Amino acid sequence: MSYSDVDDMGGHQDEYSDDDDGNLAIYRRREALINLLRCGHHIRTVPSNDKHGVSFDFDLTRPLQVGNRRWAQVWEAVTYDFDGDYQTLVVKLFIDSLFPTPESQGFDMAGTWTAARLRDSESWAYNALSDLQGGLLPVSGGFYEFDLGLGERACGHVMELIDGRRLERDWETFGQPQWHTLEASREREARMVKFMVMVSELHKRGVVHNDLKPSNVIVPDHDPGSFVFLDFAIAKSIQHPNFKNNREEDLLCMKTMHLEQPSV
Ligand SMILES: Nc1ncnc2c1ncn2[C@@H]1O[C@H](COP(=O)(O)OP(=O)(O)OP(=O)(O)O)[C@@H](O)[C@H]1O
Ligand SMILES: [Mg+2]
User: Fold this and answer.
1) In angstroms, what is the span from residue 107 Cα to ligand 1's centroid?
2) Cα distance between residue 44 and residue 58, in whole Å
3) How far away, in angstroms, is 153 Cα from ligand 2 center?
4) What are the Cα distances from residue 154, in Å, to 108, 197, 204, 208?
5) Looking at residue 114, what DSSP letter applies?
6) What is the per-residue burial (b if ≥16 Cβ within 10 Å, else e) of 176-206?
7) How far apart, in whole angstroms, are the C-alpha atoms of residue 158 and residue 143?
8) Which of 84, 102, 141, 233 could anchor a disulfide with 158, C-beta 3.0 to 4.6 Å?
9) What's the pLDDT tens digit per position in 89-126?
10) Closest CA to 255 of 244, 245, 246, 264
11) For residues 226 and 199, what is the distance between their CA atoms, to the nearest angstrom?
């Protein structure tokens, strides 16, 4: 299967082009990596002492968000237990060499948003929010170093797959008469309040998500009135100097920071 075939399977991805950096070696390395990660590809965790020296095997089955110039390669994957029963999970791989380039991104985060840093932030946040896993955020299966094959390694987060849909603007009814009814507006208000209460649960545990946007929130099929937060890769402690003097109301008010990210 070629990389472009993966695109037909519903994953979100960027176009891959050879205009990056003009550096042939980097270009070839990225191309090799992209070709390596494909549906059906087998990856394995590198045994480490804190995981009792055990390796876990995964087959990548469906791209959720993959491609060049991505902060993470996110795959649905299956893993098998000793009885041969399988479990479907998400594997989020942080791979430095497939990160957005300053040219593609419009800003330079080189040396700041490294794979190790993003993994560490996500790991810290999942730890701080452990009692919310399985509710407001997916259950984490842990952080591992993966052997991708051909000598490539990457750090990755294994977590529960949330079936649902990304939070999206309702373009269908937006602007239509039914959008303006009192009932519809009350319903939206109630959902917004619920959303904010859920965000404040993160804050209560000392975590500012710091990258709240529709693609980082899922409305789960099992509870469409609820929200599940994803992507804590740039989450920060509420004690961080950026937030330290802010009142809770300020943190909740979608204040725009650098990069136009809401500080929620
Ligand atoms: N546990 C999960 N269950 C279901 N879908 C998921 C899960 N984790 C990630 N996804 C899907 O993969 C997408 C990308 O995941 P995530 O936001 O964690 O990666 P990212 O590379 O940091 O993304 P971006 O840079 O675009 O914010 C999400 O928008 C969502 O559609
Ligand atoms: Mg994201």
Assistant:
1) 21
2) 6
3) 22
4) 22, 35, 32, 26
5) -
6) eeeeeeeeeeeeeeeeeeebeebbebbbeeb
7) 6
8) 141
9) 999 999 988 988 777 777 777 678 899 999 999 999 99
10) 264
11) 12
Domains and CATH numbers, the chain: 3-160 (no CATH), 165-260 (1.10.510)
Structure tokens that stand for 148 in this block: 């991708």
Ligand 1 neighbours (beta carbon < 6 A): 64-65, 70-72, 74, 90, 92, 138, 159-162, 166, 215-216, 218, 230-231, 233
Query: Which residue's CA lies nearest to atom 13 of ligand 1?
Result: 65
CA 105, distance to chain mean position in Å, is 17
| Ligand 1 midpoint to CA 181 (Å) | 34
* Helix or strand holding residue 153 (H, E): strand 152-160
Using CA atoms, how far residue 119 sits from 26, 115, 156, 205, 220, in Å, is 23, 6, 7, 19, 24
173-232 pLDDT, tens digit per residue, is 888 898 889 999 899 899 999 999 999 999 999 999 999 999 999 999 999 999 999 999
Give the span between the Cα atoms of 113 and 117, in whole angstroms.
6
Which bound ligand lies closest to the C-alpha atom of 218?
A: 1
Hey, what are 6's tokens?
A: 């993966």
**Which two structure tokens, joined as six digits, stand for 167?**
């939070």
Q: In angstroms, rounded to a whole number, what is the distance separating the alpha carbons of residues 126 and 227? A: 16
Is residue 141 within 8 A of residue 159, CB to CB? The reply is yes
Could you give the dihedral angle defined by the CA atoms of residues 154, 146, 129 and 251, in that order, rounded to the nearest 10 degrees? 10
Find tokens 């380039």 and name the residue: 101
